[in-house]
């Protein structure tokens, strides 16, 4: 029995914190500038020495790019805010109660709100003595998975009483993930009014230098593409999007690939983004809008973007299975 003057202690819980990249608070230039300043100042994202990079970032990029990005965000913004935040929130909601009454599920963003430190502290205050941090990136990359984990570790470093921590490993080749993707793509293709001649799998790009330094991301993407193609019974065209700056990036580039396909006789395509757990600016604006435009300008006649797994029944069940596996030893498998 606790002494009469002992502070209240919440009942012990296990926590799951879903994490994703982040989003500005609004689709206006000021909000986007604030978001980009945080995102592009991350040493995991831009590995140029700060003495060289920060003057470029503050003097040029943050005075030119936010307006253009804000215009892009405005095309996909909704009453629920940014698609990434709205979908991650929906994934979190769908997983409530999935692991029993003693497991708390929450969500956070690496950049923007709600922040990883804020939600970790809230989970600790609620009694979570064991927390699974789950970066929703199927393919491991230093600029995504690692920086999300870094932020969690940084938050724990400031706590006197730390919860035990686990992190969700990459699941790029997990059969549960590959099957979920295949199920979603097959349903998406079946709903089209045309038969795609090819399926393009577009992953977010990274500088070529990251591969040369040992980051496994490129290999993870290629393996996902190969396994998914085998599961679908047809090879996929793997490409990389969102190039930025003058450095050499992973190839082939998605925009160039889309422009070249019609000349090769491929005028009917479906495009998917297997590396994104939730639709966002890069999928809804860069692929579904600009990708379509560039493909059709070069002679493409039929184009379809098939959504990410998002908070679909298939996507949520995949997450539930992966997370339950990582909770083994902490809670009974659900």
Question: Within the largest sheet, what's the order of strands?
Answer: 2-1-3-4
Order of helices and strands: EHHHEHEHEHEHHEHEHHEH
Backbone shape = globular
Structural class: alpha/beta
Q: What is the CA-CA span between the terminal residues?
A: 32 Å
What percent of residues adopt helix (DSSP H or I)?
Answer: 40-55%
Rg for CA atoms: 21 Å
**Count of separate DSSP helical elements:** 12
Tell me the major beta sheet: 4 strands, parallel
Unreliable parts: none
Q: What's the total number of strands?
A: 8
Strand percentage, roughly? 15-25%
Mean pLDDT: 96
Question: What are its keywords?
Answer:
about 325 residues; alpha/beta; 4-stranded parallel sheet; 12 helices
Compose a concise summary of this entry:
This protein is an alpha/beta fold and 334 residues long. It has helices at 29-39, 50-76, 83-94, 116-125, 142-156, 175-190, 208-212, 217-232, 254-260, 281-284, 286-297, 313-326; strands spanning 13-22, 103-111, 128-135, 164-167, 198-204, 237-241, 268-272, 302-305. 45% of the residues lie in helices and 16% in strands.
């Amino acid at each position: 029995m606790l002494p009469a003057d002992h502070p209240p202690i919440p009942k012990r819980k296990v926590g799951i914190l879903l994490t994703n990249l982040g989003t500005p608070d609004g689709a206006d230039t000021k909000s986007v500038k604030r978001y980009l300043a945080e995102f592009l100042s991350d040493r995991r994202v831009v590995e140029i020495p700060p003495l060289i990079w920060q003057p470029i970032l503050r003097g040029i990029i943050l005075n030119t790019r936010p307006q253009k990005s804000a215009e892009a965000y405005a095309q996909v913004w909704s009453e629920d805010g940014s698609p990434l935040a709205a979908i991650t929130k929906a994934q979190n909601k769908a997983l409530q109660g999935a692991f029993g009454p003693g497991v708390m599920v929450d969500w956070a963003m690496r950049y923007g709100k709600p922040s990883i430190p804020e939600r970790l502290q809230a989970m600790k205050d609620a009694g979570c003595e064991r927390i699974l941090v789950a970066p929703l990136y199927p393919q491991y990359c230093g600029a995504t998975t690692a920086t999300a984990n870094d932020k969690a570790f940084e938050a724990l470093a400031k706590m006197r009483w730390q919860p035990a921590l686990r992190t969700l490993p990459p699941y790029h080749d997990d059969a549960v993930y590959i099957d979920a993707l295949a199920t979603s793509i097959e349903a998406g293709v079946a709903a089209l009014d045309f038969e795609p001649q090819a399926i393009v799998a577009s992953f977010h790009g990274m500088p070529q230098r990251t591969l040369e330094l040992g980051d496994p991301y490129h290999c993870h993407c290629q393996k996902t593409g190969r396994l998914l193609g085998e599961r679908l019974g047809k090879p996929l065209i793997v490409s990389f999007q969102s190039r930025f700056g003058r450095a050499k990036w992973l190839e082939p580039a998605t925009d160039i690939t889309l422009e070249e396909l019609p000349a090769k006789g491929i005028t009917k395509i479906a495009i998917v983004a297997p590396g994104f757990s939730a639709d966002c600016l890069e999928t809804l604006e860069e692929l579904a809008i600009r990708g379509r435009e560039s493909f059709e300008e070069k002679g493409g006649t039929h184009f379809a973007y098939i959504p990410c797994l998002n908070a679909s029944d298939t996507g949520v069940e995949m997450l539930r299975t992966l997370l339950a596996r990582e909770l083994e030893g902490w809670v009974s498998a659900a």
